[in-house]
Write a structure and sequence with these properties.
The complex is a heterodimer of chains A (about 475) and B (about 100). Chain A has about 475 residues and is of the alpha+beta class. Chain A is built from 16 helices and 16 strands. Chain A folds into 3 domains: about 290 residues, no CATH class; about 120 residues, no CATH class; about 60 residues, Arc Repressor Mutant, subunit A (Orthogonal Bundle). In chain A, strand 6 and strand 7 form a beta hairpin. Chain A is elongated and about 95 Å long. Helices cover about 35% and strands about 10% of the residues of chain B. The chains are: A alpha+beta (about 475), B alpha+beta (about 100).
């Protein structure tokens, strides 16, 4: 039988606020345990939550960016369950009336096509603390620094049909929240994590199969592997006469498998009710307009503009708009050079990105800024140096040896474009290799490359390659 | 709507409340009475009436995003039953 997979994702994006969603404690990552957990985060008696304006603004920005309705009126609810890292015994979340309604996101697939994925809703909630089960004399250690950190839970429609689509959606959403500046996107620190709802059904069947929920997937690779594993598990189960049960499963990256978290099912009775400590959240036009005004140019719009304004291919435009920082660097380079958008694209995507990766740096810490890169490209453009030499100069610039012009002067890398000087080198190269010359003239055309190599070597790479080609062709004819 | 003993036991378990068996009928009666009151109110026609969250119909006030709370870990942990390395220690829970 042919099976179809149905996947929906719930993504938790940690909002990039300075303080918590309902308290003034800091959200900075990596502090000593419990030093950023105040009376509200600890759920001490008599405290009241007060909502963080920026958390709401960020949720509204996401809503506007996915074309969703931002609710004029939404309500906070208590989700009740017992766990030691949730001291109040309930998590403040939103249930029936979330702040962001239906929206959508367009994902790009490997075959070049695109697909629209529906987003059901997005709601604000607080994160829980952390439990450490390592050796504390048979007890668990609780760190409540993370308790009360603002999260935006973004729930997709069950619109994805493969692990690849799920990863494409997750990447697109990741790019978007980072673009918007509402989430730092750091997956290792848990700022962007994902639960996946996975089910299978016979192809063509309009009904959904029973789904399993896979929890806490904190990398793109794990999402893909966990879903692939889960699809296979469910199909094997059904084909061997079993039934998928609705349950929560955990992905174990070491074993590459998902495992049932039995015993938690009954805890799914969360008994939501409106939180009497919080009044309805009412947003007026001014608030929503301000959120709209704070939106940057969105990735898809920027990509489209890059293809139109700079004449780039969709692929190049896609790579250059991966992040705002890279796109800004590219545009600053083009502006500084005053044109040559394709040349700039090649260098920003090529050597520049490669060196960043090699050093594991981000653009803000790049030793070569846009003006300096443009300075190098200008010398390439006016043929002071060849492409090969430009790479050498770039490496020196990266190492902090100065601007392109200074390096070219200091190292004597100026390209030789004087015809008589190049002819002199060619004559030397030919004179030094009489055997090869004879073979070439006897019809061994392949040796042309050998002579080009000799000339470049004798000129220390400085002879203009195009001129070398043209002049050498003439000279070899004899 | 009325609750039976099994439902009372379930609610008590979800709320982590220990109740005595002999008290179950009384809880069932009282909780059912509350639900009946809600059912009565539910019968009122509220078409076109906006829900009210507060007698003065106020909306949630928002606070500026500023990390203003000082670290008071020592004071908080002074009343905790057991702490170590800055952590609150609790009976072991394993998922």
């Amino acid at each position: 039988m042919e099976w179809e997979t149905v996947i929906g994702l719930e993504i938790h994006a940690q909002l990039a606020t300075k303080s918590k969603i309902f308290s003034g404690a800091s959200t900075a990552y990596g502090a000593a345990p419990n030093t950023q957990a105040c009376a509200i985060d600890l759920g001490l008696p008599g405290v009241l939550p007060v909502l963080n304006r920026d958390a709401v603004r960020m949720a509204a920005m996401l809503g506007l960016a996915i074309g969703a309705e931002v609710a004029r009126r939404s309500v906070f609810a208590r989700k009740n369950y017992f766990y030691p890292d949730l001291p109040k015994g309930y998590q403040i979340s939103q249930y029936e009336l979330p702040v962001v309604g239906k929206g959508q996101l367009t994902i790009d697939l490997d075959d070049g096509s695109s697909k629209v994925i529906g987003i059901t809703r997005a709601h604000l909630e607080e994160d829980a603390g952390k439990s450490l089960h390592e050796d504390f004399h048979g007890r668990s250690g609780i760190d409540l620094n993370r308790a009360g950190t603002p999260l935006l839970e973004i729930v997709s429609e069950p619109d994805m049909r493969s692990a690849k689509e799920a990863v494409a959606y997750m990447k697109k959403l990741h790019q978007l929240v980072v673009y918007l500046g509402i989430c730092d996107g750091n997956m290792q620190e848990g700022s962007f994590r994902c639960d996946a709802n996975v089910s299978v059904r016979p192809k063509g069947d309009p009904k959904f199969g029973t789904r399993a929920e896979i929890k806490n997937l904190n990398s793109f690779r794990f999402v893909e592997r966990a879903i692939e594993f889960e699809i296979e598990r469910q199909i094997d189960l059904i084909e061997s006469g079993g039934k998928v049960v609705q349950e929560t499963r955990l992905y174990d990256p070491d074993q590459g498998e998902t495992r049932s978290m039995r015993g938690k099912e009954e805890a799914n009775d969360y008994r939501y009710f409106p939180d009497p400590d919080l009044l309805p959240l009412v947003l007026d036009d001014a608030f929503i307009d301000a959120a709209r005004a704070a939106l940057p140019e969105l990735p898809d719009v920027k990509k489209q503009r890059f293809t139109e304004q700079y004449g780039l291919s969709a692929y190049d435009a896609g790579v250059l708009t991966t992040s705002r920082a890279l796109a800004n660097h590219y545009e600053a380079t083009v502006a500084a050079l005053g044109g040559e958008p394709k040349l700039c694209a090649n260098w920003v995507m090529g050597d520049f990105s490669a060196f960043l990766n090699k050093d594991n740096r981000d653009i803000a810490n790049s030793p070569v800024d846009a003006a300096q890169l443009a300075g190098l490209l200008r010398r390439l453009q006016d043929r002071t140096i060849s492409g090969k030499i430009a790479k050498e100069v770039f490496e020196a610039m990266w190492a902090g040896e100065g601007d392109a012009d200074a390096i070219i002067e200091k190292r004597g890398l100026r390209q030789i474009t004087d015809t008589s000087a190049i002819e002199k080198v060619i004559d030397d190269a030919i004179a030094a290799n009489p055997d090869q010359l004879a073979q070439y003239r006897a019809g061994k055309d392949k040796l042309f490359g050998f002579f080009v190599g000799q000339v470049m070597k004798l000129s220390k790479g400085k002879a203009n390659p195009q001129q070398v080609n043209d002049l050498l062709m003439e000279k070899l004819k004899g | 709507m009325s609750l039976g003993p099994a439902e009372v036991a379930k609610i008590a378990h979800l709320a982590r409340l220990a109740i005595r068996d002999e008290d179950v009928p009384a809880y069932a009666r009282n909780l059912s009475a509350i639900l009946e009151l809600v059912a009565q109110m539910d019968a009122a026609d509220t078409t076109g009436v906006a829900p009210m969250a507060h007698p003065l119909n106020m909306a949630q006030r928002l606070r500026p995003d500023a990390a203003a709370e000082p670290d008071r870990r020592e004071r908080f942990q002074a009343i905790a039953p057991q702490v170590e390395a800055g952590l609150y220690l609790v009976p072991k829970v394993i998922e």
